[in-house]
Amino acid sequence: MIIDALQPTADDRFTFGLWTVGNPGSDPFGLAVRASMTPTHIVAKLAECGAWGVNLHDNDLVPFGASAAERDAIVSEFKAALKVHGMVVPMATTNLFSHPCFKDGAFTADDPRVRAFALRKAMDGIDLGAELGAATYVFWGGREGTEVDASRDPRTAIGRMRDAIDFLCDYVKDRGYAMRFALEAKPNEPRGDLYLATTGHMLHFISTLRNEAMVGVNPEVAHETMAGLSMTHAVGQAMEAGKLFHIDLNGQKAGRFDQDLRFGSEDLKQAFLLVRLLEGSAGGARYDGPRHFDAHAYRTEDEDGVWEFARGCMRTYKLLAARAAAFDADPEVQDLIAERTDPQLDPLLADYSPQKAAALRAVTLDPEAIGQRGLQRERLDQIMTEYLLGAR
Amino acid sequence: MIIDALQPTADDRFTFGLWTVGNPGSDPFGLAVRASMTPTHIVAKLAECGAWGVNLHDNDLVPFGASAAERDAIVSEFKAALKVHGMVVPMATTNLFSHPCFKDGAFTADDPRVRAFALRKAMDGIDLGAELGAATYVFWGGREGTEVDASRDPRTAIGRMRDAIDFLCDYVKDRGYAMRFALEAKPNEPRGDLYLATTGHMLHFISTLRNEAMVGVNPEVAHETMAGLSMTHAVGQAMEAGKLFHIDLNGQKAGRFDQDLRFGSEDLKQAFLLVRLLEGSAGGARYDGPRHFDAHAYRTEDEDGVWEFARGCMRTYKLLAARAAAFDADPEVQDLIAERTDPQLDPLLADYSPQKAAALRAVTLDPEAIGQRGLQRERLDQIMTEYLLGAR
Amino acid sequence: MIIDALQPTADDRFTFGLWTVGNPGSDPFGLAVRASMTPTHIVAKLAECGAWGVNLHDNDLVPFGASAAERDAIVSEFKAALKVHGMVVPMATTNLFSHPCFKDGAFTADDPRVRAFALRKAMDGIDLGAELGAATYVFWGGREGTEVDASRDPRTAIGRMRDAIDFLCDYVKDRGYAMRFALEAKPNEPRGDLYLATTGHMLHFISTLRNEAMVGVNPEVAHETMAGLSMTHAVGQAMEAGKLFHIDLNGQKAGRFDQDLRFGSEDLKQAFLLVRLLEGSAGGARYDGPRHFDAHAYRTEDEDGVWEFARGCMRTYKLLAARAAAFDADPEVQDLIAERTDPQLDPLLADYSPQKAAALRAVTLDPEAIGQRGLQRERLDQIMTEYLLGAR
Amino acid sequence: MIIDALQPTADDRFTFGLWTVGNPGSDPFGLAVRASMTPTHIVAKLAECGAWGVNLHDNDLVPFGASAAERDAIVSEFKAALKVHGMVVPMATTNLFSHPCFKDGAFTADDPRVRAFALRKAMDGIDLGAELGAATYVFWGGREGTEVDASRDPRTAIGRMRDAIDFLCDYVKDRGYAMRFALEAKPNEPRGDLYLATTGHMLHFISTLRNEAMVGVNPEVAHETMAGLSMTHAVGQAMEAGKLFHIDLNGQKAGRFDQDLRFGSEDLKQAFLLVRLLEGSAGGARYDGPRHFDAHAYRTEDEDGVWEFARGCMRTYKLLAARAAAFDADPEVQDLIAERTDPQLDPLLADYSPQKAAALRAVTLDPEAIGQRGLQRERLDQIMTEYLLGAR
Q1: CB-based contacts of B119, cutoff 8 Å, min separation 6
Q2: Are residues C309 and C269 in the same domain?
Q3: What's the rounded Cα separation, in Å, for the pair C115 and C119?
Q4: Is the same domain home to A354 and A245?
Q5: N or C: which end of chain C has fewer CB within 10 A?
Q6: What is the Cβ-side half-sphere exposure of residue D29, based on CA atoms within 13 angstroms?
Q7: Which residue ranges of chain C lie beneath pLDDT 50?
């Protein structure tokens, strides 16, 4: 029964990037193992797999340095393919990391020419995204960091980043694009340390923008996990602040290189908790943006393996969503996680007044007795494990 | 010459906690190895070592559950000792983690009785801090986290934390205390995952408070380093936002348990970069708050070793400050890190206008040529290494 | 159906330590949350939960410094309880880490008096283990490490460790005990760095013993995972060498403090792979030693939560074993993992001869064609994920 | 004074790989930033910088697929350059990781054709190394691992690795080459998990070879540090076993991607401890093999930056060696680390006899008194820190 329900639909809002399924499998120690695929081929195959949309960096579609005529021809062909296959482009972004000119950053680079070139490239990328209908524009600052911190005051870097993002927000407004920005954090790699290293740092940075309202975050499972942080907590903090504008789903082991594995292939418990949060089965609104799989197939795979990978990401997401819904519908679970209320105390715990302070000081509380109550978390977690394993 | 200058002075604003030098050396696998020291003894010895101030949790001084009369007698004796030894109490904090009643959190606990008790204990701790003259009150949420994320929505936890901090801000205002709050993040331990896991997450949380102005951060070297993040970047982000209200200095290896080692005993490069940032030798105002060593002596030490440890923290800090000053005074360094300016481009890189966008698009930029320029970072880092090693 | 089969039996050889279910829940930041349980109570409750055996440190049963008469009375009462409840003691070990005299190591300590006391304590512990029928004696060197590597040459430490283990092997032989040793590695905590940090280092150390034959390893999930290493690979290497003498099962996130969580509560994929290896469903003999859960309940739990925890460890193990068996029985899986053979090449790939070298050089091999073959690992891993999730 | 002594000499045995200084600076997110350099140019420049030797993979010198005539011409030109510049080739190795045919391993690959091709390539590489005079042949199994552990039993992989190494040992003997093997471990990257993940695992593997005597290890700072393990302890274990045949020096932060930074640019304390061990200033024989810098310049650098990098590696090594020698010559240090002896106990602590056991049990030992003695490790470590910083 569950199995029959695993076929993706448009309502799932599953997306992949051209750079994800199109990844040819080179790495720091090895050459490409798969031939390049054309963007139009990727669109056709993703549609066949059941994806709803496809995302892209400017240079995934239009080669660096292409002429305006080449660009237009490519875009035109791509739009035709989208139409044929019923696919959308919900998100676009700029490649500000591959070219040697970005070797020490783009928006935070010390060389004003690099910052100028980066702004210009981002404006062009935004135009491209707008033309393709992207409602979200992502910024991942792949080179915005250092190995040699003596070279640049981190405050200078943050200031430059703020100038750039605010500049581009105003550009979007000036053009009248219906587009929001989603900023993506990463702790390290390819730079020794990247500025604004986690979703938390990024959320704070956003709070300092002039154009705060149109900027949110794009948390990525792999990036938070590399630092050993809880993706669920990061996404929860972003949702609570109304700032979850996009999400990057994949798999990763903590404390190592950026793996970008198939969603659900690592840490199934964290994946379950994340899907449960996004789907809202335990409460709160369902996240209504794209579920973007920013991952790629193992280097052991040929093209068939790439489409196995893509289908696997979507199947596991749907399976986890079904398991989360069943877990949250279980009366024992509902009982275990029901909010404890106290009519006397609850009104005293927010919105200070001297009267509340006095009342708090007057109430009788027995910390020893409170401390002895068992909280049944082993039972709750074991039930969750058994739902996850399909054994309950 | 440098050596003679290593004696600490009041201007250094070096502080230790009662719980740091007073740590008896128990750990998850072993019993205490040192006898307890009285708070007044610690004050006397820290003064002898050259420290400027001493910090405390409420229960470092006043035992949990002490009567008002006992409390007053203890505080009175402690204040007398401070006066005799010329020591100040710049910071105080609440122990909201040791007692079993806090086993599932304090401000974020599910049980309203725990939240009420935590608020009350914090109010009392604030009163104690105010009485001792503490200008900074630190909150470290040692139990504000989970092992079982199914049990509590992270959004609920953040909301509860906000209610508590805003409540206590208003309490401070109501009492007329000249006190600011400094929030301290930690990724994990003793809980599986702690909410608001890094200084970045905490800075964002602060931006959502009603009383944002009176709340800043207390970054800790060990806590940022446990997650493999750059302490220098975190402190830079806090300083840029005007939110560095306090700092916890110690030593830590990445990716392991909270070690709280002697300052400078691990990652001397990061320690150098941090001291350089705090002392302002490369630019920016000098951080004017306490330099708090939140560390403790190895378990191999007796009491003599504890004071060696305390002197070592301060000596290494001063040594690194001297090395940073020398590095920044070196003309070759100044040349290597001088800001690159471009009269044509600089005005185009902030504060968007359609004219600037057009000008940016019109300017001639050669990314290939820009990418070929070497940035001399190996030279800069090697010079820094040699200053650090005292070889230049 | 699977569910009915989850009740533990003696054939499962599930064991717990007195120190695991008996853990009162103190940690570096908090006091005990649960009352102590007597060893006999633990025996009764573990039997009720379905465990086969119970393991112990000397001081879990007999307090440090107890007289011979006290010891004998305690042991006698304990043996009676074992008999009543049909429980065995398959493993015993020595506490060489809690007492302050071991603060800088036991067998590797610089003070000869500590090394002498440690040997003596271990001999007594071995006698206790033998009396209780333990066939395996574990050594975990909780304090065998350093924070200050200048203090002791690591070669000296290894030499001392070798002397101690060989000494104790000979003691066992001299006494005629039917007992083998299992050495347990850990990378760090409570010491900064522990000697012989992983199962790999320990296997090598064992290869240098005079009494190599009677010494194997006791790999622990949490300890290998703390360093981000593959438990499956470590156990595989130990099994290949005939050295898997015992195993410690629990849960842990990489790159943090030693968590000792309920088995299966973290990294279900790795837990599946480990159980599959131990149960031999994919080939190789089934591991025939105890399945020891070296874990403890969350600090949020009361005693009821402890027994939930214990039952959960065993249920999840059995569930994973059933899932692994189903996975390995799947014809598609069998096809995907079948060994590829090549009658011409296979004989040339081991046991060198000049003729084989010449034949290898003469054979036609096309690396380009070989490199293009897809290996269907995405499919295999997705099938495994779906078996794990009970969806296939 | 120290500074004058930093010029490298042949006695220092400093080496670099063609692939290290020749690294063009591409990474997973960016293109090459530096032009390729010819091997002969590298030889000339390394000689100018003061290096003693140059190491290489087969394909660093001879392109994959070159004809015998091409190969001979290249080798001949290279040997001429070595002679002109007075450089030696102390170590060579095989590239068994770049080509797509090795995407799932070389010696451990499932496809017998890959294993055959890998053996043949290694034989050819050994011939090349022998021709160039290399006394050490390194094996780093860059692809010997998995992402999908269901695909291959780790025992099978270890067996295949053993067959391959023993085969190639016999090949070396058969050819009469004066060559030893050095095996290099790495925990992960580029594969999810690599077999034989640390120097400890590799030392054990070596103990299981038929040709154990001619095989040792090549520990690498970055690889041990990635897993958060102590390089000093790993090298100490290898030296104690007579198995330190080669060493790879560089810099790395724990818990992240393989950085291969300039030696001494990270964790100066660990670098000091390592150099101290290799140079033997605290006791034990000086390591007499090459000091190989397996690192590369930051991607921000042009060719000038590469030679700054190379000079920096050697300068920092020599500086640390001088500092270690001074530290070990300090009488206070010598006193602090002097071995404690006990004429009564020392003979009882090794080489068991029933008499020794009885004597141990009879001796009076007071664990409380022993536990109270302070070990002055804070003082020792602070002195070391100050030597390291050149302040003492």
Answers
A1: A348, A349, A360, B107, B164, B167, B168
A2: yes
A3: 6
A4: no
A5: N
A6: 25
A7: 1-2
The string of pLDDT tens digits covering residues C320-377 is 999 999 999 999 999 999 999 999 999 999 999 999 999 999 999 999 999 999 999 9
Show the DSSP H helices in chain B as ranges. Answer: 18-21, 39-49, 58-61, 68-85, 112-131, 154-175, 199-207, 221-226, 231-240, 268-279, 303-329, 331-337, 354-362, 367-372, 377-388
- The helix (run of H) or strand (run of E) holding residue A138 is strand A136-140
Tokens of A271: 């994946």
State the average pLDDT over residues D1-12.
79
pTM (2 d.p.): 0.98
Q: Which one-letter amino acid corresponds to residue A324?
A: A
Same domain, D231 and D355: no
Indicate whether A199 and A238 sit together in one domain: yes
Q: Which one of B290, B308, B327 terminates a domain?
A: B327
* Rounded Cα gap, residues B138 and C3, in angstroms: 50
Comparing CA positions, the residue from C254, A28, B228 lying closest to residue D260 is: A28
Would you state the structure tokens that stand for residue C97, as one six-digit string? 């880490």
What average pLDDT does range D274-301 have in this prediction?
96
Domain that holds residue D16: 3-327
Cα A77 to Cα A82: distance, rounded to the nearest angstrom: 9
Which residues of C lie closer than 8 Å to B, measured between beta carbons? 25-33, 97-100, 102-104, 142-143, 147-148, 187-190, 192, 226, 228, 253-259, 261, 298-300
Q: Find the CATH number of the domain harbouring C96.
A: 3.20.20.150
How sure is the predictor about D2, in pLDDT bands with cuts at 50, 70 and 90?
A: very low
Q: Which helix (H) or strand (E) holds A19?
A: helix A18-21
Return phi, psi of residue B183, to 5°: -95, 135
Give the Cα separation of A151 and C27 in Å (integer): 42
Q: Give dist(CA D316, CA D309) in Å, integer.
A: 11
Q: Test C253 with A228 for CB contact under 8 angstroms.
A: yes
- Of A30, A33, A99, Cβ closest to residue D97: A30
Domain's final residue, options D277, D295, D327: D327
pLDDT at D332: 98
Question: What is each CA distance from B112 to A360, B59, B152, B209, in whole angstroms?
Answer: 12, 22, 14, 21
Active-site residue, C57 included: yes
Tell me, yes or no, whether A76 and A113 share the same domain.
yes
Q: What chain C residue is nearest to B105 in terms of C-alpha separation?
A: C300
Partners of residue A3 in chain C, C-beta under 8 Å: 391-392
Residue with tokens 């309202």: A213
Closest by CA to B93, choosing from B20, B187, B196, B188, is B20
How many domains in chain B? 2
The Cβ of residue A339 has, within 10 Å, a number of other Cβ atoms equal to 11
- Band the pLDDT of B4: cuts 50, 70, 90: low
Residue D268's pLDDT is 98
CB D153 within 8 A of CB C283: yes
Instruction: Looking at the structure, tell me whether residues D86 and D229 fall in a common domain.
Output: yes
Partners of residue D379 in chain B, C-beta under 8 Å: 305, 308
If asked whether residues D343 and D319 sit together in one domain, one would say no
Q: Is the pLDDT of residue A292 over 80?
A: yes
Angle between helices A154-175 and B354-362 (to 10 degrees): 110
The two structure tokens encoding residue D267: 């964790």
pLDDT surpasses 60 at A307: yes
| Average pLDDT value for chain A | 97
Which residue is listed with tokens 């009267």? Answer: A355
Residues D382, D272 share a domain: no
Tokens linked to B225: 């380093």
Alpha carbon dihedral A35, A36, A39, A45, in 10-degree steps, equals 20
3-class DSSP state of D251: strand
* B358: nearest Cα among A171, A268, A336, D334: A171
